[in-house]
Write a structure and sequence with these properties.
Length: 148
């Protein structure tokens, strides 16, 4: 088990170096007309032609790419138009607020100042209806008991 892990640990870094992206091959034509293919550039004195050896995408549709690009452009135009509309709306709202504030200040300046004469304002007070008090006899001399 440990030997397998060691082997895998040695092979994995090698596999990581292999890339399937943009593989390039050189086609070399020798002086005698013989054609060879190699990964390194051709030696001097031979005809060299670069060949892209990247695996072809079999389900690639060039028309689909164009449609996607056009949809992206259309979406970009819509976003720009929406941003312009939003900016216009914000500018109009700001101008409306400024105009209303200016009008309020003009109305305040044109208004005659109010004169306050005093506070509290005294008004005649109506007596509240109360039940009549019983009549009390007028105070008289105090009588003391006779036995003392």
């Amino acid at each position: 088990m440990r030997a397998r892990c060691t082997i895998l640990a040695g092979i994995l870094p090698l596999c990581a170096g292999i890339s399937a992206d943009a593989q390039e091959v050189f086609r070399c034509t020798g002086a005698d007309g013989r054609v060879t293919y190699q990964q390194a550039p051709c030696p001097k004195g031979t005809g060299e032609q670069r060949i892209d050896a990247t695996p072809a995408n079999t389900d690639y549709d060039p028309g689909q790419r164009q449609r996607i690009l056009e949809q992206g452009d259309e979406a970009g135009r819509k976003l720009e138009a929406r941003a312009a509309e939003d900016e216009k709306r914000r500018r109009e709202a700001r101008e409306r607020e400024e105009r209303l504030e200016r009008e309020a200040q003009e109305r305040e300046a044109a208004r005659e100042p109010a004169v306050i004469y005093g506070w509290p304002v005294y008004r005649p007070v109506k007596p509240s209806p109360r039940p009549p008090r019983p009549a009390t006899p007028p105070p008289g001399p105090v009588q003391r008991p006779a036995g003392r």
